[in-house]
Amino acid sequence: MKNYAVKPFQLFAIVLMLSGFATTDIAAQIGVGAKAPKGAKVLFDGSREMLDKKWTYWEGPRLSASLPIKWQIVKDPVDGGTAVNTNDPASAGGKYGAADIVTKEKYRDFRLHVDFLIVKPGGNSGVYLQNRYEIQVLDGDSTTHGMAAVINEKASPYYPYHGTGKWNAYDIVFRAARFKDGKLTEKPLITMYFNGVKVHTNQPISQVWGGPNSGIDGGNNDGKGITDVPGGLKLQAEGHDVLYRNIWIKKRNLKKADTDF
């Protein structure tokens, strides 16, 4: 008679699937240079073609740039490939929202990977989930407004930062806010690894920060009026030399309020 007992590794796989995470995602590499797992979409591969195909300027109230996107494709200073530089002329002087770029596709729940490199001390940008919630990219700042912070929600986990002139990586699982009858019932949640170190676990996000120039709902009840609409992934231009490459995303449908991975 065959032994049909469930082995430990099989039980682990079943638990992962029931919780909404496929084993391929758990096994996927995190950190700088992580490759897109099966089912993920590459949003930026370092090429001008993909930049123009999948991204556009965010049409916020401060937009002062016009297509085609003026962010330049540059040589990767570390690995010799290519990357995109956020230093759009329209954003000179730190005018965020003047030349930010956003994906044409919009998302709710997802797994995200982003590689970034800050060229000079004080370099500033940001990764916006759903074009709402900023994950800060800011050299030299370890406050709640600093590097890898869920901005104004939790202090910067600065210690895994590789420093200027080197590639860094954010690996994120995000669960969008939930609503019932038009009313917010569950806050958005994020779990994040910074350069392979888990720095946020099921961190709730209370609002959109930065005002109307920051993203969707930023001007709605001082950012507290979150609405039930998906949004794109946005990268911020602040007139600094911050480079991005190797950006990929995989859509999720997280039934439970749990983003841990």
- Provide the low-confidence segments as ranges: 1-27
What is the CATH C-level name? Mainly Beta
Q: Percentage of helical residues? A: under 10%
Overall pLDDT metric: 91
Number of beta strands: 15
CATH superfamily: Exo-inulinase, domain 1
> Per CATH, which architecture?
Sandwich
Q: Structural class given helices, strands, pairing?
A: mainly beta
Total count of helical runs of at least 4 residues: 3
Q: What share of residues are in beta strands?
A: 25-35%
CATH topology: Jelly Rolls
Task: Give the radius of gyration.
Answer: 19 Å
Compute the number of structural domains.
Answer: 1
**Helix/strand order, N-terminal first:** HHEHEEEEEEEEEEEEEE
> Which descriptor suits the 3D outline?
globular
Distance between the termini: 38 Å
Q: Keyphrases for this structure?
A:
single chain, 261 residues, mainly beta, Jelly Rolls, five-stranded antiparallel sheet, disordered N terminus
Written description of the protein model:
The structure is a single chain. The chain is mostly beta strands and 261 residues long. It has a single domain, classed as Jelly Rolls. The protein is built from three helices and 15 strands. It has helices at residues 8-18, 23-27, 48-54, and strands at 41-44, 55-57, 72-75, 82-85, 101-103, 109-118, 124-129, 133-138, 167-175, 178-180, 183-186, 189-194, 197-204, 234-235, 242-252. Strands 1, 3, 4, 6, 9, 12, 13 and 15 form an eight-stranded antiparallel sheet that branches. The chain has a five-stranded antiparallel sheet with strand order 2-5-14-7-8. A hairpin with a 2-residue loop joins strand 10 (178-180) and strand 11 (183-186). The chain is globular, with a radius of gyration of 19 Å.
